[in-house]
Amino acid sequence: MPKSTIPLDAADRRILRALQRDGRIAVTQLAEEVGLSATPCLRRIRRMEEAGVIARYAALVDPARIGLPIQAFVMVALSSHAEEVAAAFHKALASREEVLAAWAMSGDMDYMLHVVAADFDAYAEFALKALLRMPGVKETRSAFVLTAVKPPGAVPV
């Protein structure tokens, strides 16, 4: 089921662009940057937070700088599409901190995972002793990141 959208005007879009560049910007500075006073700016931010437009605030950490230079995108096929199999797989994924993100996909494979590891041995340990033993996993295919040509960025608003 698609999520509902809320109408965004030009000021909302300026706020979102600025917050995506710097989520720690002071409201007074943000208001000045987008051409509003602080109170209406904060009211707009709160409205967008409550509506789920702003999902959360987070620091973007470079995995390589904290000892996790190996990044892989892993396609996973399940042996069954039964609800209980998918639910067990989701639960197993949720407990693995090396899985940064997971998406249910269309096509030949059922899921795409973004995984980080300290080295190839650590990745192999995860793949062989955790991922392949998760409920319902039939097949996996891994592709390793060589370099980030265009890392994840701001959503165009």
What brief labels describe this structure?
single chain, 157 residues, alpha+beta, Alpha-Beta Plaits, four-stranded antiparallel β-sheet
How does this model look, in words?
- The chain has 157 residues and is of the alpha+beta class.
- Helices cover 35% and strands 19% of the residues.
- The chain has a 4-stranded antiparallel β-sheet.
- A hairpin with a 6-residue loop joins strand 2 and strand 3.
- The radius of gyration is 20 Å and the shape is elongated.
- The model has no long low-confidence stretch (mean pLDDT 96).
How many strand segments? 4
User: Could you name the CATH class of the largest domain?
Assistant: Alpha Beta
CATH superfamily label of the largest domain? Lrp/AsnC effector binding domain/regulation of amino acid metabolism (RAM) domain
The number of distinct structural domains comes to 2
Order of helices and strands: HHHEHEEHE
Distance between the termini: 22 Å
Structural class: alpha+beta
Strand content: 15-25%
Low-confidence stretches: none
Strand order of the largest sheet: 2-3-1-4
Biggest pleated-sheet summary: 4 strands, antiparallel
Helix fraction, binned, reads 25-40%
> What is the radius of gyration computed over CA atoms, rounded to a whole number of angstroms?
20 Å
The CATH architecture of the largest domain can be named as: 2-Layer Sandwich
Query: Taking all residues together, what is the mean pLDDT?
Result: 96
Count of helical segments? 5
